[in-house]
Write a structure and sequence with these properties.
alpha+beta; 3 domains; Heat Shock Protein 90; 11 strands; 5-stranded mixed beta sheet; 10 helices; 6-stranded antiparallel beta sheet; elongated
């Protein structure tokens, strides 16, 4: 035995749904309003039947909705499933607004068209997603704090400890061997400069707005000074063009790409020399053309081997994708590494 649609009592079926079911004609006058709609919107059915659909919408969206509805009536499309389009906003009887998803279908009834909307209040989903975003943000902040703490311990604290030790013994060394004393004094100077460079970089991390305030050329110089404090690498910075023309979002992404590449130079490359080039070409009425290139003569690596271990490369690619830049990484064992980001 089978049942046909006419044998169902659709009114009873709609009334057990928690979603709102609303039917209206082509003039957007409400013809049906189920119990789910009453619970969501706060109206009783008798309050809205015959009323324009506008009363269920925020006023600022009424004209837009009417235009979308007109296009839907004129189109050959008979239905649109829930989730196909961006969430919409509904307005309750008390004037409060809420986010919603809706499915719509049109039915030809003799000389007129009826539409049926099934609408779902997604306020709780939004709250859950916002709570998740906040949790992710807190975890990211905690991870960043831990990273900065490690950097302070691994670089600045150790450098300052070395400075303290050398400063304590320097007077005695100078008395016995002035030449060795001069060498140690130069070492003291380099350690102090390195610690200062590390502190400046870490302060940028603690106050990200400083990155926006600074010129990208100065930021690259600062990163290179940090590399010098960590490893015996000769650094060469070359900047051409008006770096002030680079938009803030692009500047931050390029800075992060350079930071990750130079961290790899200091920690893994065993390089003797590294060149950082920034070339900016302004264009009237358009974003400037920008090319950032970082070249080292270190040990190199195979970019295609064990990609899961190359977290730094993944971070650089994500940064490049975020601003629509092309990222090229050229390297092989024993032949150094080139990282190039092009806008």
């Amino acid at each position: 035995m089978t049942l046909v649609a006419s044998q169902f009592n659709l009114t009873e079926l709609f009334d057990i749904l928690v979603d709102a079911v609303i039917a209206f004609n082509q003039d957007q006058r409400i013809l049906y309003f189920n119990k789910g709609a009453e619970a969501i919107f706060g109206y009783k059915a008798e309050e809205v039947l015959g009323q324009p659909l506008d009363i269920l919408l925020p006023e600022r969206f009424v004209a837009i909705h009417r235009e979308h509805f007109r296009h839907f009536l004129e189109s050959p499309v008979r239905s649109r499933p829930m989730g196909e389009r961006q969430p919409i906003s509904g307005r309750r009887k008390d004037g409060s607004e809420f986010p919603a998803e809706a499915a719509i279908a049109k039915i030809q009834r003799t000389s007129e068209v009826w539409c049926i909307v099934i609408l779902r209040d997604i306020t709780e989903r939004y709250r859950a997603e916002e709570a998740l975003r906040q949790q992710v943000a807190r975890s990211a902040v905690e991870a960043e704090r831990n990273r900065i703490a490690r950097d302070l311990h691994d670089s600045v604290t150790q450098a300052l400890f070395s400075v303290s030790v050398i400063a304590d013994v320097l007077p005695r060394i100078w008395e016995r061997n002035p030449a060795e004393g001069k060498r140690r004094l130069e070492e003291l100077r380099q350690l102090s400069r390195g610690a200062l460079a590390e502190m400046r970089t870490l302060l940028l991390e603690l106050r990200p707005a400083s990155i926006l305030e600074a010129d990208l050329a100065d930021l690259l110089q600062q990163l290179c000074a940090t590399v010098r404090s960590r490893a015996p690498v000769e650094m060469d910075v070359q900047v051409e063009g008006p770096t002030q023309a680079i938009p803030d979002k692009h500047k931050v992404a390029l800075y992060r790409i350079a930071q990750e590449a130079l961290n790899n130079v200091a920690k893994h490359s065993n390089a003797k020399h590294c060149t950082v080039r920034l070339h900016v070409v302004p264009r009237n009425g358009a974003l400037p053309q920008v090319q950032l290139t970082i070249i080292d003569d270190g040990r190199g690596f195979d970019p295609n081997a064990n990609r899961s271990a190359h977290l730094g490369l993944k971070i650089m690619r994500e940064r490049a994708d975020d601003i629509g830049a092309q990222l090229e990484i050229i390297s092989r064992p024993g032949a150094g590494t080139t990282v190039r980001a092009v806008l």
